[in-house]
Amino acid sequence: MLKYLSAFILLFVASFAAGIEKTTIDKNLETALVGKNAYLLVDETNKLSFDEVKSAGAFQLLDKDIATLQDAGATYWLRFTVNNTDNSGKLFVEFVQPFLDEIDFYFPGSDGAYRVREGGMKYPFDQRQYGQSTNFLYDLNVPAGQEKTFYARIRVKQQTVVPVRILPSTKFYSNTINLNIWFGIYCGIIIVMFLYNIFVYLSIRDRSYIYYVIHTIVVGLTQATLTGFTYKYLWPDSPRFADYSFFLFTCLVSIVGVQFLIEFLRIRTIAPRIFRVLKVFQAIYVVYIVTSLAGFNDITYKAMLPTQGTIAFVILGVSIHLYRKGLTEAKYYLIGWSSLMVAIVIYALKDAGVMPFNNITSYILLFGSAAEVTLLSFALADKINIFKREKEESQAQALTALEENARIIREQNVILETKVTERTVELKQSNDELNKTLKDLKEAEAQLVESEKMASLGQLTAGIAHEINNPINFVTSNVRPLKRDVDMILDMLNRVEEISLAEVSVDEKKQQIKELKEDLDFDYLKEEISYLLNGITEGSNRTAEIVKGLRVFSRLDEDDLKLADINEGMDSTLVIVRNTLGTNIDIIKEYGNLPPIECYPGKLNQVFLNIITNGLQAIRARFKDEKGGMLTIATSVVDEDNIRISIRDNGVGMDENTKKKVFEPFFTTKDVGEGTGLGMSIVYNTINKHNGKIEFDSVVGEGTEFIITLPVKLVNVQIEEQVGHQ
Fold first, then answer.
1. Residue 7 lies inside a defined structural domain of this protein
2. Which is deepest, 117, 365, 690, 694, by most CB within 10 Å?
3. What total number of domains does the chain contain?
4. What is the pTM of this model?
5. CA distances from 544 to 472, 531, 580 (A)
6. Is residue 713 within a helix (H) or strand (E), and if so which, with residue range?
7. Residues 140 and 245 reside in one and the same domain
8. pLDDT tens digit string along 499-528?
9. Judging by beta carbons within 10 Å of its beta carbon (0-12, 13-18, 19+), is residue 8 exposed, middle or buried?
10. 3-class SS at 293?
């Protein structure tokens, strides 16, 4: 009888043991999730000891891949059994969650007694057994052919999901290397986007770019925090800040992201109501930062979850709405935000167990945020394309003007050739008509000089039109909303006057005026009027500056000998050619401290314009549309009586034949109809009549330098008359 009873007890124990779920591994192990084979016990009293937990029978089968710890005030005990059939390699168990406030791992020693390794976010990072991983990693000493049971005690400050997986050491190090590589690529994308857009911001000064670069850095820090890299590398000895950084960066990325949305899509002016809603969300996130700093992590986290979902769909809806209204900037923004939304959905489905847990679903937010940052940069670049199209239209108008000038020059050339032929025949017929023929030739030459001036005037017109168009457009675009706001102010004043004359109490009048101000959003109205007036002031100041440069260049009183600042004249000339520079040619100015010189400023400005224009054409002939072009302008004092001006380019240079003819009238290297060949001849004669000297040095393929020497004092020289007889 005792024998049968003993057999029954053994059978009962064996059947109970067989019912315990185990994670079985073999020599082919890659990665094994223990979730469905693990048991979970929730200690809401936070008082159970390990021995009490070990003997407790309240463990519940988890029966899913990922454990979800929902109650931040409880202690969670996780138990799992590992059955090693024939794997003889080194094994690890990894808790794939960097944000565990406490985790104590209990493992059986060689004598069967359990030992514990304490860890968690409350300890400095360098106290972890394995610092290669940002997660929590422990040894699994389960020899082949044996099985062991392990326990983990976990406490968290907010709702958390904890995937637990067993993997061999080779797989762990492979995963770690791959994660470091992918995160390094991600950081590279973030840094490239940051530096590129900072450079663009410094070039065009669009506020959208500064919010974008701040958003990019905060996005990078947020992803680094979610994967544990900031705790590992930036503040490993600050557990409290590492825990707080999750809330800080999550809130900051939403605050800055919303501000970028407002600036980039011009929501403040296009959709004022949406603007106010977005500002409310920003204020909510500021509150979350304060509550998390105060230690209310669980409450803050539970409030943040629905807020994050709501703001994500609000941003998506706003971008769709504005795109459908015809705002082209919203296209790339919509695509970029949608890519992040897809990544968030996949990540959430992974946590819910709908999608499998693997390296792709674990780090999908990295890929999604990298795509978002990149596509938002494309969205900003699309703005540049809009500006580029406007510039191309302006250049097309300038080209039309130049073609018209070229047509006039061609006609003048034909007229000149006809007159020369006629006068040659007449010379053969009569010497008496020689003076008349010479006079006609001089008149024709004077017409060509005027044509050359007209060509320069066309270039001047195109340059000034392009330069003055942007500030004028800025002023005109602000006038309509300013008129609307002023009308609203006037209506409000009329209404206030009516209220003041009404036969009601003073308090009621105050209340009515207060309601009227709230209806009109008076504070915002004042802010908008100030903003519009500042814009108009800025545009008008910029226009005045351009007109001043034009006045300096043109020198309406050029027939009078006067003292002039050569550096100022050179700057005004650069204003004229600015629209032809493009973005691929650099202007380097090395001005000396020059004294004012006696000269005819308008004539010298024409000299500078001709030389600079030829230099820019030579640069474009060498570099086409690529970068590398450089025009250097240097001025200096030679001695107390003379100054020196150097204009150097790194263009195609001149061969020996061109050097010999560079100052000859009618010699040009341009195609037929594109130049009169008088530009450098006028330069030479103008410098000569100023009692100056012009020299040049040129190397084919390297560039050309013109050096002009001018006297400080000029006496009894009639430039206009002498240049006319060149």
1. yes
2. 690
3. 4
4. 0.50
5. 11, 20, 21
6. none
7. no
8. 888 777 888 878 878 887 777 777 777 777
9. exposed
10. helix
